[in-house]
Here is the input.
Amino acid sequence: MTTDALRPDRRLFLAAGASLAMAGPASARVADPGDYEAHLDLAFSRAGPPALAGMVVGRSGASWIGVRGVRRLGAPEPVTVDDRWHVGSNTKAMTAALFARAVQSGATAWDLPLARAFPDLTVHPRWAAATLDDLMRHRAGLVDASVMGQSWLMTARSDPRSLVEQRTAIAAAALAAPPAGNPGAFAYGNANYVLAGAALERITGRPWEEQMAADLFQPLGLASAGFGAPADPAPWGHGSRGGVSTPIPPGPFGDNPAALGPAGTAHMSMADYGRFLAVWLDGGRSWLTGASLARLTTPFAGPGAAYGYGWGVLSHPLGGRDRRPGPLLTHDGSNTYWYLSAALLPERGLAVVAASNDAGRGSQAVGDLIQRLLRAAAG
Here is the structure.
């Protein structure tokens, strides 16, 4: 895997926002599932990825799921609606939600300074003004290359230390030196969420993976959820070079190093991902409070990308005075072998998802399908 795995998601929320703008004024309607199937067929046939999945989600969870293609090139097994998909950087919204849960319990605060979040580490004085929510909004001044560059990527999978110890080492290296970036300016990076996960490990006394399983997967009923590339039987990710896709078996080299977990290693079925998204469509489902939802979906009030906590936010996606659809939340995720995009209209109780097991041709198919589904579902 190359350092592409550590670059920000390129499309983030621009494509989805553009698709909604093209959709025109929103009106309540229920699309024929056959329309969704036709859009899936078209996006799949045009790009030709190994596999492509689409989903429409309402307040009670998935209302339609469709799949096309095979689990891996060179093998006959077709993908199924129950297969698990790598969600990549869409894991960030899950880590931010875990932090919100810790705030709800009184265990921490959104504006906790990094020096207090990491009392066991040496923190350079220039981090004095930085807080945990600065990390989760990518505005702390942290730069991936300074702590998780090529040398880290080449050695992290063979690191014998526990994942908690590995994330602590990343946090220690980042905070011992002054910020490599510009504090206050938006700079998307995976290291921000690795440090947020390391802070959560200190706040709760549990590894991030245990927190995800006990505090997110279990209460939301995400029985298929796990970490890394899903093990067989499941789709395989595919690397792409020169337009040629190659299946990559699950295992340590089928994903980013596991220490990157809080920034992007979760996998789950489409239906289970729909259950997670329904939290944002149904007032938190008693799992998140209204105050937490508002915080997680409110972008920084300043220049740069309109980014909340694991979500890009377009306040008025139709532009002008037409505010009927409400805010659009969206994010993409990729580990260079998989690609997934989600777009949510919480005030409409609507979300759409597209995913592929190929970050090359699959990313093209995902971009095409997410726009088609959003236009069809939004009316």
Summary: The chain has a mean pLDDT of 91.
